[in-house]
Amino acid sequence: MFTPISGRAVLVTGGTRGIGRAIAGVFCGAGARVAIAGRDPQAGAAAEAQLAAAGGEALYVQADVSVASDVQRMVDAAVERFGGLDVLCANAGIFPDVRLSEMTERDIDELFAVNVKGTMLAVKAAAPALAASGRGRVIITSSITGPITGYPGWSHYGASKAAQLGFMRTAAIELASQRITVNAVLPGNIVTEGLDELGPEYRRKMEESIPLRRLGEAVEIGHAALFLASDEASYITGQTIVVDGGQTLPESLLALEAQ
Ligand code: NAP
Question: Is residue 60 annotated as part of the catalytic site, yes or no?
């Protein structure tokens, strides 16, 4: 039986859509008070209303995680509303697809500004409040792409997702003295609006390449994040949980065909 986390204050960056919104929903469902951040105020208001309609206590804060002043304002807003902060889910991320031969300096800068700098700024800004909590938790949404696998069009994305883990390992050491743990969840292929746009054929092929023969649900990332935020995970820091239905296990497609 896990210790309830009801009443804890949680901030989810990129909590207005997709995986982040599902993480926020899982924490709200567990009785936490949850702030969500993203740039689009319409998506933010809709997500806030959805979480509230499901019985959660939610607050939307408009912020661009690549801008330090926005990130500080986002953390301040959550702390002011909830009286503190116990959990940061650094989830905001972008994944534009561009081959290396076509990639511009701007493509690289924009992606790193959100995925890497945005993660680092959020952790830095949240650290004092997480330290004051006495049981602070950081959960980063990385990916299998980069840390474990590669995919054409995502060399910059993969580099950013691996960079998040490099950051995590030293941040975990630096923040350990303040009883803050820093871990990451590595999703495989998760069903989101963006994935739907790639069409049914893409989805069918992806499902065939996954041992569990289905894509992941966004709430399944939320459940891993909830575990890492629990009291029972208090001795885990600087680690990763892969949530991919076994996608990274087969050494080749032959391994799946031989099943
Ligand atoms: P998504 O549906 O596109 O949602 C991305 C979220 O991040 C939105 O709330 C978006 O809101 C926010 N965001 C983007 N840029 C931002 C910025 N500069 N400042 C603040 N918020 C920003 O994507 P997703 O699939 O849920 O992905 C979420 C995370 O999971 C990402 O880190 C991604 O790399 C990772 N991931 C996803 C998958 C997958 O299969 N979906 C797999 C592995 C890893 P605004 O656009 O309004 O700012």
Answer: no
Give the binding-site residues of ligand 1, using a 6 Å CB cut-off: 13-14, 16-20, 37-40, 43, 63-66, 91-95, 114, 118, 141, 143, 187, 189-190, 192-195
Span 65-92, average pLDDT: 98
Which domains can be identified in the chain, with CATH numbers?
A: 9-257 (3.40.50.720)
Asked if pLDDT for residue 65 goes beyond 90, the answer is yes
Least confident span in 116-125, 179-188, 200-209, 224-233: 200-209
How many beta carbons lie within 10 A of that of residue 36, not counting itself? Answer: 33
- Helical H segments across 101-154, by residue range: 105-112, 118-133
- pLDDT at residue 198 is higher than 90: no
- Residue 197: per-residue pLDDT: 77
Q: Are 24 and 36 in contact (CB under 8 A)?
A: yes
Asked if residues 167 and 122 have their Cβ atoms less than 8 Å apart, the reply is no
Whether pLDDT at 56 is above 80? yes
Q: Encode burial over 157-194: b for 16+ CB neighbours within 10 A, e otherwise.
A: bbbbbbbbbebbeebbeebeeeebbbbbbbbbbbbbee
pLDDT at 259: 79
Q: Of 175, 149, 171, nearest to 161 (Cα)?
A: 149
Q: Taking the C-alpha atoms of 155, 168, 14 and 35 in order, what is their torsion angle to the nearest 10 degrees?
A: 180
Q: Is the pLDDT of residue 1 over 90?
A: no
Beta strands 137-141 and 9-13, pairing class = unpaired
How many distinct helices (H) and strands (E) make up the chain?
Answer: 10, 7
Closest by Cα among 19, 116, 127, 109 to 65: 116
